[in-house]
């Protein structure tokens, strides 16, 4: 009740009356990540207009005691060292002369445990037809599978990566799709795979298309069926790591054959340029790279997936796919121009794919990666630090423009965090990781509007489609746009335009039309978009790279070990984003590879809300192998430990 009352008072303070103009910075409250902050990670808030050295306090809402103190610098307050271990309490930030923030939490892997299900729930809800037998491409906006995009959505690619990053988490959700015995995310991957196969050569009508597809001077496509192969490639790679129990070999071979037969005919072996002709005012004309299916780096992803698939096949030819992946990566190393907006923010929702594709090469096959990838990622990291050197930590477009003046920038902060997490992990760059967390803070309210970028509608709250604990959602909504995404769980709806920086006027919650209109200087009235949510899904996925860990100890759980003897007992420790219920003991597992055999070892949380998962295992007495491998995760997103067996 206390939190509800406080939220009501704060909401009233935040929005004010429709007659208010530019807000008085002396009255602006602290803007925090309304969901909360991850333990052990960077933490910050913004209090616009607060003078340097203005004190702030963090107050426990249960005890009313001050638990942390600091001072404002450049409109920001930092409290990264505040890590209340094992606490379920909530906190507010008080700034002298500016009032209080909304309540927030600090918890183990809070972002991932609160957002992972919603990240894929969006794609469950946004399908044009759940039944593939009755799917009507002509009546679905953009075709499918997601009803607001075509095959360029690459849903299966990023669903595969999400599962691979934290597989035990998704065992918790099995009730929405399929036979209720398999993780819903697995069933969703298989649904998207079958969709891609069904429409692998579809070039018929779709409900609406903002442009055409194909090369200049050649016949145009009405549907981007080439991209169906990219999705099947991800599924074929996943077959060998985690999909084999769920995907019949006959079906897998059918998908594989479709890729092999069409790969070069569909130009999946190379970087695709100037393929999309857009009729949108924001990017009208032929685009070198675009969010509509020819993203820069997409070729690296798909060819690496096929390399991973083919290297497990007796009759496979992985080297040719590796060569194509290397060629695509070399193209990026040579030609990716950070100062060319058509390679960066201009391609909006596809921008995240470029750094993530290079990162994926170093994660999946580091010894096969061409020279120069790490150096290119270092240069990108430096560029991002320079462009986001402001108190919002927002990647600015230019010296004179924060963001686009008329259109949503959902391809920015929601997706940029994932790119920063991936690159920071590979470069061991804590500053870049902290900048990635600032992007997620931006999504949840540390932005000029002071709200989450998802509209908190009654419809979404009723169906469990919103983040628990987030008070203020995006103030405008457009629930009945082309995609009809108003009732889709976890949908992002808008982001501040250039006119809202450095701080927005007091905003009035309205529903508007998706016509580029800005309500005074109010927030853009828009709707979600599938590839905007894809970028957010990638952020939730790659955040785990810097926080998951796997270790092996002796039987007494005292000394970390790297070698074992047959018959010896060991203790396995996994730290991962599996702490769903902070009042209960959660479950996890790891895989043990023993020669050609693999078995699952179940783990339990060491105590309620510890976030550490442990289990015991006894090395077989008759073990004849020279080493064992323990692992958690797949496809380069895994953590693994090699144990030498000393017979």
TrEMBL record:
Q: Which residues form the Cellulase Ig-like domain?
A: 32-80
Q: Which Pfam families match?
A: CelD_N
Which first-to-last residue range defines the signal peptide?
A: 1-18
**CDD domains, sorted:** E_set_Cellulase_N
InterPro entries with a match to the protein in the record: Cellulase_Ig-like, Ig-like_fold, Ig_E-set
Keyword list, A-Z: Signal
Keyword Signal listed: yes
Q: Can you tell me which family this protein belongs to?
A: Belongs to the glycosyl hydrolase 9 (cellulase E) family.
Q: What is this protein called?
A: N-terminal ig-like domain of cellulase
